Amino acid sequence: MKRQKRDKLTRAHAKGYQAGISGRSKENCPFQSNDARSHWLGGWREAVDDRQQGLSVR
Fold it and tell me: Where's it found, cell-wise (predicted)?
C-alpha cells in the first residue's frame, strides 16, 4: 500500500513539474486531495524556479 501511495505522489510531483516548465498556471492543478495537490504544487514551484534560472528542459 505504501508503495502505491508513494508512486502516486511522485507522479503528481512530476506532472506538476511538467506543468510549471510549460508555463501553465498553478490554478490548473488537477488534484483534489491535499497530499497529491501539495506534491503537484511542489513540482510546479520547482519548475518555475528552474525556468527563472534558465534551466528549461525541452
Answer: Cytoplasm
How many residues does this entry show for the chain?
58
Contact 20, 46 (CB under 8 A): yes
**Runs of H (alpha helix) within the chain:** 2-21, 34-52
Does this model's pTM top 0.90?
A: no
What confidence tens digit (pLDDT) does each residue in 36-55 have?
999 999 999 999 999 988 87
* CA atoms within a 13 Å half-sphere pointing along the CA-CB vector of 31: 23
Nearest to 35 by CA among 8, 3, 2, 4: 8
